[in-house]
């Protein structure tokens, strides 16, 4: 036997990227109402070092370009972890900003007709790509998403997220009653579709499956039981649904499930409350509901622009926080009126203000970044600039336009500056979105493939 020259294993070259700017992230959760907090990590004019798509550290000095660092200088700009939108509907981009309805009318008039179109694979594919590119162009690099009841709509979203390297959690919407026939499944076919999608997509790269009953009124008790059984069989699955958004909806659930103690109790009895469960809205809950949520480790998802737009009600953030419930923040487009997390943060502030409470910029930004990642059990992967996390990073202008610029010039202190940024900025302030260290949106050049 003879040997040729020893072959060296092929090693892909190390990619090194360093971003300079004002780095802001969280190491912990700020207390409600606290303006000065050690939970915040602000590193003005620092370099964020990224190696092979992961954060390697931060430092004040520029790294040595001779060691292969690609130096990108954004000094004078704000660098944040990418936002995580914990509840948003892909097919509803087509009905964002629709006039004059509350939840139940709104579903029948606008949402269900838009969702029917997603039975067509071409519509689902184009819709998924347009939707994820829109998220990236708003500084959102990870999301928990409702597609439609159609299997193809889930496939399209997973495939489009995989192409972009994004963390995406989604799953086929379950609906076997109280919706147009074109949007109905049944218990057996829904279970088959879920199992097939789980086996092919769950845990593949940054993709994960969420068991997705739309809400209690559109699933029979048998279908909710099937959804609970899926969750019990595999504790790594997520679950997403809606709860207690609107008073008419709450009354309807009480009629449909007369033996349940409350709306939330319908889900608890079906085995759908667990640490990987996300429940959107949670406006009309009581103390027993909040205790059940805290006990289970499930998270509530506050959707402020949607709650205002549909006139649903004012979410009681401090009550949920005090009960020990995890809270994240979301756009809920198309009930929500913008994919911009800053606009949703501003609406979150207004919702709390209407109820006589004050949300700091820290509470809001934490819920949209590290808090969401913690609640999803994914804080080792994203939501902050800790060493080893994937570099999902966005670069923002501190101010755009004469009003914001003038305001930014007179701010005193960090909270005042970041709060003004939160209120006055939106997607037009976004310069770059990186996903795992790769540019996926650039204001000057549009989307990156
Ligand atoms: Zn929703």
Automatic annotation (TrEMBL):
GO terms for biological process: guanine catabolic process. It catalyses: guanine + H2O + H(+) = xanthine + NH4(+). Binds 1 zinc ion per subunit. Its EC number is 3.5.4.3. Keywords: Hydrolase, Metal-binding, Zinc. InterPro entries: Amidohydro-rel, Guanine_deaminase, Metal-dep_hydrolase_composite, Metal_Hydrolase, Metallo-dep_hydrolases. Gene3D superfamilies: Metal-dependent hydrolases (3.20.20.140), Urease, subunit C, domain 1 (2.30.40.10). Pfam families: Amidohydro_1. Residues 79-439 form the Amidohydrolase-related domain. The keyword Hydrolase applies. One of its GO terms (cellular component) is cytosol. The keyword Zinc applies. Pathway: Purine metabolism; guanine degradation; xanthine from guanine: step 1/1. It comes from the Bacteria. One of its GO terms (molecular function) is zinc ion binding. Its cofactor is Zn(2+). PANTHER family: GUANINE DEAMINASE. Catalyzes the hydrolytic deamination of guanine, producing xanthine and ammonia. Belongs to the metallo-dependent hydrolases superfamily. ATZ/TRZ family. This is Guanine deaminase. It comes from Roseateles oligotrophus.
């Amino acid at each position: 036997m003879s040997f040729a020259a020893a072959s060296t294993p092929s090693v892909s070259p190390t990619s090194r990227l360093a971003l300079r700017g004002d780095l802001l992230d969280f190491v912990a959760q700020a207390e409600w109402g606290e303006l000065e907090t050690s939970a915040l990590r602000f590193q003005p004019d620092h370099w964020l070092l990224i190696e092979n798509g992961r954060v390697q550290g931060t430092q004040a000095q520029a790294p040595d370009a001779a060691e292969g660092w690609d130096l990108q200088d954004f000094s004078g700009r704000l660098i944040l972890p990418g936002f995580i939108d914990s509840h948003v509907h892909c097919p509803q981009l087509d009905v964002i900003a629709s006039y004059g309805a509350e939840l139940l009318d709104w579903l029948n008039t606008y949402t269900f007709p838009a969702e029917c179109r997603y039975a067509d694979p071409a519509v689902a594919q184009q819709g998924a790509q347009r939707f994820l590119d829109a998220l990236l162009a708003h500084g959102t690099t990870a999301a928990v998403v409702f597609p439609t009841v159609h299997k193809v709509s889930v496939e399209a979203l997973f495939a489009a997220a995989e192409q972009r390297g994004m963390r995406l959690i989604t799953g086929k919407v379950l609906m076997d009653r109280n919706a147009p026939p074109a949007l109905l499944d049944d218990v057996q076919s829904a279970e088959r579709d879920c199992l097939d999608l789980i086996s092919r997509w769950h845990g593949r790269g940054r993709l994960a499956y969420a068991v997705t009953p739309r809400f209690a009124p559109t699933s029979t008790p048998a279908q909710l039981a099937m959804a609970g059984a899926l969750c019990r069989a595999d504790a790594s699955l997520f679950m997403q649904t809606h709860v207690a958004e609107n008073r008419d909806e709450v009354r309807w659930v009480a009629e449909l499930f007369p033996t349940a103690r409350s709306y939330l109790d319908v889900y608890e009895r079906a085995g759908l409350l667990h640490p990987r469960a996300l429940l959107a809205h949670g406006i009309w809950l009581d103390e027993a509901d909040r205790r059940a949520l805290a006990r289970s480790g499930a998270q509530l998802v506050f959707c402020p622009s949607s709650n205002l737009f549909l006139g649903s009600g004012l979410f009681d953030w401090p009550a949920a926080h005090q009960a020990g419930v995890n809270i994240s923040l979301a756009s809920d487009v198309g009930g929500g009126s913008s994919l911009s997390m800053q606009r949703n943060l501003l609406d979150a502030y207004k919702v709390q203000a209407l109820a006589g409470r004050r949300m700091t910029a820290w509470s809001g930004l934490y819920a949209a970044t590290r808090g969401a990642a913690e609640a999803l059990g994914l804080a080792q992967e994203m939501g902050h600039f800790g060493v080893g996390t994937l570099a999902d990073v966005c670069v923002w202008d501190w101010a755009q336009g004469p009003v914001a610029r003038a305001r930014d010039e007179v701010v005193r202190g960090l909270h005042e500056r970041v709060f003004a940024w939160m209120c006055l900025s939106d997607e037009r302030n976004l310069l770059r979105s990186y996903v795992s260290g790769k540019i996926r949106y650039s204001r000057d050049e549009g989307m990156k493939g």
